[in-house]
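By way of example, what follows is a protein record of this kind.
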Amino acid sequence: MGVVTRLTRRRRQLVEEKARVLNRMQCDLQAVCPGLLAITGEADNLWFLNLLACRDDIRKLAGLRLRSLLGIAAIGRKYAALIQAWQACALFSDEAQWAGPMIVADARRILALKREIDALETAMTEIACDCELARRIDTVPGFGAVCSAELAGEIGTLDRFSTEASLALYLGMASLAHSTGLHPGSRRPRQVNTRARSAMMTGVARPISQVPRSRAYYDKKRAQGKTHNQAVCALGRHLVRVLWSMLKHGHNYEMR
């Protein structure tokens, strides 16, 4: 396994772990102190996680003074005001005694995962600079260094694929016909690399807001009755053809 592949797979595992821990923490917070959860739009905001992690007993957050709040990383006066408004009517359920430590532990774990993911992404970006495949993919608007490194690591070499159709199957951007009786349909092939497909879905979604032609193609598919994911996959299928040509001929992406 190459260095890029190992780094990108490790990052993917940590991202998935972070999502699981975050979902668990949010469920516990909703049960223990819904008012606290309500002050943030995103529970994985750095300031909110730092707040949850700053005391072993979550109930003590209700008594923190302004000076203590401003001493917590990423909490300025704006967020301190939100916290103080919550403190004025803070309520905890009876579950806080035993579920509170779980919330604190999860917040600290998410912070640790964020640091690990950031470090991996920095390493991936540096190593990807020496990978021709990653450099080529990175020229496609919206893909970015992380998606490009992940795709390069999972593809490995284009020599593994006989046609661009086989590459599209591997990346999860093509479906196989699967009809029953009078009802036409399709199914996802078993050859799909789920890690590569996730990277493609992320990378393909970004050009929709950055590249007018990609947006027009996406809107066309939605107008035809496609769901969001189906329209993204259709655009992804088109981009696989572009990637195949780029990588086969050693060209970078060109905006037309």
